[in-house]
Amino acid sequence: MSLEDKTTAINELAEINYQPYLDAMPDMGATSFNNPLQPGFSSTRTETLPDGRKITVDKETGAALGTNLFGGQQSSLQNTVAGEQLGFIGSGFIIFLLFIVLMRGFAIARRSTDPYGTLVSTGVVAWFAFQIFENIGMTLGLMPMTGVPLPFLSYGGSSMFANLIGFGLLQNVHASHRS
DSSP states of 29-61 as a string? Predict the structure, then answer.
């Protein structure tokens, strides 16, 4: 096949008319937000502010105290689920509990007399801190979506197993310091 034939074939592919395919797709426009029978229905609504600006509001927001505690959602982004079901206060409490776990880990690392124990516990705390920062950063839109789980909360057995191994390492360093 000569270079001219290849160029002609590429030009023919570039001239394909995609409009019939686009016309066959369902309309996912602004009307789908208000009509649950249309494809792409969302649980959002548009409200007009007194100054005339329009904002989109979710119908099922968590507010301060949440909507329901036992909704049964399973996600790697448990911070958003906690924000919806437990509200701002519950989500803040979860972050506070994770902060306590990190501070206890740093205390174990600081009190360890063995340099290996200090390195192990500091590594486990750094691992948990990275996962917490990355997961909450993903839900806030500050970090790229990667699939890093939130320690002790995200859905998945292998993640929980690895977190419990890390927690066991912290407990081992703490126990060896006490004896």
Answer: SGGGGT-TTSTT--SEEEEE-TTS-EEEEETT-
